[in-house]
Amino acid sequence: MSIGTAARRTLGPLFxxxxxxxxxxxxxxxxVAAAVPELPHGAxxxxxxxxxxEILNHLLDRQPGLRIVALDLAAVIGTALRPDLRPRxxxxxxxxxxxxxDAGGEAADAVLLSDVFHHVPPVDREQLVRDVxxxxxxxxxxxxxKDIVPAGVRSGLAFWADRNISGDRGVQAIGPAELTDLVCxxxxxxxxSPTGLLDVDAPNYCLVFRPRAQP
Length: 215
Hints:
Blueprint: H1 3-11, H2 15-24, H3 29-35, E1 44-48, H4 54-62, E2 67-72, E3 89-93, H5 97-102, E4 110-114, H6 122-134, E5 143-148, H7 153-166, H8 176-186, E6 190-194, H9 197-201, E7 204-211
Parallel strand pairs: 1-2, 1-4, 2-3, 4-5
Antiparallel strand pairs: 5-7, 6-7
């Protein structure tokens, strides 16, 4: 059992409060939410690796017309999601992107992966990108990826916590250049734009991938 799992069981209903305080050491989720581009009213955002849903509170407040489908391999997700926002979120625990697609899931207008890729073994990352791009159906891809630059004390603490508190011993960092090569290697027609998150909340970075503008 990981330290994080033990803390969840011990703290019970107090765990979300402790989780917020713990998360602030490593990332400001308000700034991550601000890095997500404004989407049209009624748009569907697929949150891959939704976790406790804390970031969704801020994202839904910023974009009141947004609907979200949150996927995660974990059996329990969305524990930090505010009750007033719950009707706008379709929680899919124990569900991969491929399983969601195979079940006929709704096409996404945007996809968010926040701190997902460094938990995915490098050998499996390309397939995850392919599955995520399939989730757009006929919609133009708008892929938002947040991760951690593998440099500096705060970065080192974040990866140490992933391995020793969250319990994922297989964590492997992925920097912005490597991430760009990965995504654009699958879809060369996509272009990447930085969001400025790295400037305001280093070592956290966020990149947006979208189709190249037509001349």
